[in-house]
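Per-record layout

source: Lentzea flava
name: Short-chain dehydrogenase/reductase
length: 327
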Amino acid sequence: MSDAYIVNVAYIVISVYIGGMATNTHSQPWNTTDIPDQTGRTAVVTGANSGLGLATATALATAGAHVVLAVRDTERGEAAAATVNGSVEVRRLDLADLASVREFAAGWHGDLDVLINNAGVMNVPEGRTKDGFETQFGTNYLGHFALTNLLLPHITDRVVSLSSTAHKSPGSPRIHFDNLDLTGEYDPMTAYSQSKLAMLLFTLELQRRLTAAGSPVRALAAHPGWAATNLQGNDASTLRRLFFRLGNKLIAQDGQAGALNSLYAAVQDLPGASYVGPDGMFEMRGAPALAGRSATASDPATARRLWTISEELTGVTFPQLTAAVRS
């Protein structure tokens, strides 16, 4: 992280902090009490043993849904599930291992109303998933790409995928089609931005395919703004970890507020391919609302190209949807 970047982001943080101090007495226009009754509905939330995922799962379960906490560490998942007041269960899912993704999907039977692709890692040191993909691209994006397509024949309502404002951070993030793993040029923030841009492009192309197939299922995306979770604690840079720790204290929303954006996308009547984020300054905090995205994230040609490559990399393709899902 360069000094100039730190100065720019610090200015944003201070601006949002001052703005937040001026408006933090206002009531939240939309919150978990506005979630419609979810009785009889089933949801899967990936990465639901802490942070945004647990907050999302808790809110849906409280509203009456049966929620599956799809987690890598089932012991931690069971501990998290014990804190939820509602109908929940824990199933193992390691998004950094396509065999685990396939096993999870193969074990699913019956309808699934909502899939929330929440899990992710952020700015971690260079590494590889079990299948050899760069860790952030493989975990945040490719694992969810495979999971969604494998579960899609069961999904009846919508898919919500987590992105980030990092998809339009300084440096004009793009998909590095010539080097998706960033071999020889790895930078943690570049890799994270690419993975979150990929999630928006995935949502765009998924919605196009669902519409073409005559499916009522909707694909949406959301981002939490700046939410204080343990996600930032694994940053590869000590300087960034300190910076994020300060930001978490001064400006970040808590996990419950950050999760409102995913919940809004999951239960509100929104058009397919909608993108939800906080409505405050720089989309860092505030009430859920439709959010802005970069021109690259809105490019259907780039979305189609990424989809084709993702099918080749994962061996998972868009399924032939049955009449049951389309009805």
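summary: Residues 113 and 156 are 5 Å apart (CA to CA). The chain is about 40% helix and 15% strand.
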